[in-house]
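Hi everyone, sorry if this is the wrong subforum. Our group has a chain we'd like a structural model of before ordering constructs, and none of us has done structure prediction before. Sequence below.
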Amino acid sequence: VQLVESGGGLVQPGGSLRLSCVASGFTFVRYAMSWYRQAPGKQREWVSQIYRGGGSTYYTDSVKGRFTISRDDDKNTVYLQMNSLKPEDTAVYYCNTHLDLNTYWGQGTQVTVSS
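Answer:
Right subforum, don't worry. Here is the predicted structure as tokens:
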């Protein structure tokens, strides 16, 4: 199993970024996918989840209305569209999935929101 995130960077407050996570090594279409983030000095926190088929999505309260999770099963890719970014969104963002009893993480992509 491999999860590879991309799309992070430096953006000004109010700006947007789209993160991507390309998955391989498992049957992507069968599994829910999640995004987590970890800010400096803080614990990793769950951000959003999308179920298989993409019909159900969930968000932590702090990003509702600003972030949108989606998936493209043909490309084995999950996305996180982040709008109206705030300095408190600064963190390393990780892609995540659970297969059977195992949890898999990507290497993370840095998002920095600063003027």
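For your construct planning: The CA atoms of residues 66 and 105 lie 24 Å apart. DSSP finds no helices and eleven strands in the chain.
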